[in-house]
Amino acid sequence: MKKKILNNTENVNTMETFENIQEHKITNNVTLYIYDANNISTKLKNIDFIYIDPPYDTNRDFTLDSKSDKIGFTDKWSLNDYESWLSQLVINLKKTLSIKGTLVIHISSENSFVIEKILRNNFKNIEKIYWKRCHGKNSVKNKFDAIIDILFVAYEKQRIFNEARIQIEEDTVWAFKNKDEVGNYSLGALKHDRTRKGYIYTIVNNNIEYKNEYGWKQSKEVVEKMILENKIHFVPKSKNMYIKIYKHEHKGKPLSNLWDDIHSITRTNKDPRLYPTQKPQKLLERLINIFTNPDSIILDPVCGSGTTGFVADKLNKKCILIDINEEVLPIINKRFQDKIYNI
Fold it and tell me: Does one domain contain both 159 and 238?
């Protein structure tokens, strides 16, 4: 059987045909192809975001059904085969990216060397996100417990990047312990330290002079306006000033490259595990929100249980899923039928 890659999709060259390709329209937003990603990906273009959670070269076999001994997929590779396969896939995937596109490859920290080597040979910009996927186990005795995955973020000169912020923990240094008639607030630093000089001036409040050898971070005009608005916290004893940061106005702290607020899938019904290497929906939600625009096309070339497409559809984004294993089809169909979201 011959079939076109995609029907009526302007982002894809629909003239090329392949033998034995299976096309499954999961929703209006999501299409699944059962085929080799290295072949199909050569025909895609204008993809804004690619997420790939590839085999890790773990030397293991994985089953898709805990009650069966049937191998779902194998992660055993001969010498150099893994690097060769992954290198070719990365080369092909790069060709699909738009000029503002981003490729994210997910890997365990223990197996990250080969992927970093390949990416640095193909992309100008590489960043790392360190995901603390779980807490340590008490059963580990003779080695360090492995709890970190690395998400390699690769792009060329430009990319889509939407700022993300996370909620501030109440018990951190940002705790909103102070209070006035407006509400609870924390203290934002206003004076500079010796590493650089700021605005040099003196503020007089209640007959006390507030000045700093290295200056202030805001101009005198800005600070005087904030004083009139009662947004400056004075500490007479140390002759220091702080900016009031109100809890109800705070947008959260900017996301860093250490993600420890999203946990791996547990045995709950909130995000049921249907696939051995399945990743949490909240992780994909964050990545999609950061690296895509409303009209972006998303690609997951080794899709497994289809989490990328499942979350993309929930966010009303277009997504192409590819997997070489046809046994993922009933798993993906079940997810979209059950509609159990954890985002």
Answer: no
Q: Please state, in angstroms and as integers, the Cα–Cα distance from residue 343 to each residue in 51, 271, 274, 307, following that order.
A: 18, 9, 17, 12
Q: Is residue 205 in some structural domain? A: yes
What pTM value is reported for the model?
0.78
Tell me the pLDDT of the chain (343 aa) as tens digits.
Answer: 333 334 334 444 333 455 678 999 999 999 999 999 999 888 899 999 999 998 756 555 556 655 555 445 566 667 688 889 899 999 999 999 999 999 999 998 888 899 999 999 999 999 999 999 877 666 666 777 788 999 999 999 999 999 998 887 766 656 788 999 999 998 999 998 888 889 999 999 999 999 999 999 999 999 999 999 999 999 999 999 999 999 888 888 889 999 999 988 876 778 888 777 789 999 999 999 999 999 999 999 999 999 999 999 999 999 999 998 888 999 999 999 999 998 8
Q: Find where tokens 């992780």 sit.
A: 283
In this structure, are 274 and 328 located in the same domain?
A: yes
Same domain? 38 vs 185: no
Please list, residue by residue across 27-42, b when 16 or more beta carbons sit within 10 angstroms of its beta carbon and e when fewer do.
eebbbbbbbebbbbbb
Does residue 296 form part of some domain? yes
Domain residues for 103? 18-164+255-338
Q: Which of 249, 270, 296 is the last residue of a domain?
A: 249
